[in-house]
Amino acid sequence: MARKGSSMRLTSSRVSSLLISMFATFASFYVAGRLWQESQTRVHLIKELDRVTGQGKSAISVDDTLKIIACREQKKTLAALEIQLSAARQEGFVSKTPKHTDGTETKKRPLVVIGIMTSLGNKKKRDAVRQAWMGTGSGASLKKIETEKGVIARFVIGRSANKGDSMDKGIDAENSQTDDFIILDDVVEAPEEASKKVKLFFAYAADRWDAQFYAKSIDNIYVNIDALGSTLAAHLENPRAYIGCMKSGEVFSEPNQKWYEPEWWKFGDKKAYFRHAYGEMYVITHALARFVSINRNILHSYAHDDVSTGSWFVGLDVKHVDEGKFCCSAWSSEAICAGV
């Protein structure tokens, strides 16, 4: 009986092993068949895609497809900008307001924002500028040059050393009537803060208006708006232009001299300034104004604002444009500015 039981267990064990082996074999055939079928399917799909696209190599990736689409969109945008630029050159410097497909007008990008540096006691000079070329905020003339010429002009002023005094109140009252000021509360109206004033103007203007250019001017010069526009139109394709009546000159190291520079020693043994635009009027492009805005807290200021502005761009890839039309002391029929 013991032998018989042992023989039966041995037979059962062999049968179980045989069944497991057969199952493993069938499973192997099944998996291999599935893998072969999927590989054949992939080969067929690739061949079909190659046939449709006309390519003999592997299919184009999703990333490459998105890049092609982006390039086509940029090409369309560039073509539209070229049309606008052509129209701007024909009209003078500003193209007509473009329209959406439904006929409604889109917002026109300003050509230039002009910041006219002024002081607390200079109301007569401001009134002269308004009468001569700028217009008044309360009337239609200021809005006219904004809509028709693309030129935004504002007086730029700080606060009195005694904030809230009668001089500050006088500026607030004037601005309530004319609406043509940029009031910088963080600037004290003093000669030593002239560079800070210009820097914060560029930062403020770049943050508020998406213009092509930003100009610094002063309240005792006349600006020829048409000449300014036609000159700037020639530089629309240059993203980093610094335009003005370029100069350099002696650095004065004696405190009793008019143009004394306290940091004269930074300019070397020859005591000569680097090339920079004369301070009565100069222009920078949108990219440079944004650079000033972003880095306003770390840009160094020298005693004179024109030197300071020039220093901000010395280490950048900037095109310095020496434009004689910005030499305000040499008035001509084509000049942009002139002293008054």
Verbal overview:
By secondary structure, this protein is α/β, with parallel strands linked by helices. The protein is 47% helix and 16% strand. The chain is built from nine helices and nine strands. It has helices spanning 2-53, 62-91, 123-134, 140-149, 166-178, 194-208, 225-233, 286-294, 305-313; strands at 112-117, 151-159, 181-188, 213-218, 221-223, 241-247, 276-285, 319-322, 337-339. The strands form two sheets. It has a seven-stranded mixed beta sheet, with helices on both faces. Helix 5 (166-178) links the parallel strand 2 (151-159) and strand 3 (181-188). It is found in: Golgi apparatus membrane. It is an enzyme of class 2 (transferase). Its main location: Golgi.
Largest sheet: 7 strands, mixed
Structural class: alpha/beta
H/I helix tally: 9
Question: Using only CA atoms, what is the Rg?
Answer: 36 Å
**Major β-sheet strand ordering:** 3-2-1-4-7-6-8
Spans with pLDDT under 50 lasting ≥5 residues? 91-97
Q: State the helicity in percent bands.
A: 40-55%
Shape assignment = globular
Main location: Golgi
Keywords: Glycosyltransferase, Golgi apparatus, Manganese, Membrane, Signal-anchor, Transferase, Transmembrane, Transmembrane helix
Pathway: Protein modification; protein glycosylation
Subcellular location: Golgi apparatus membrane
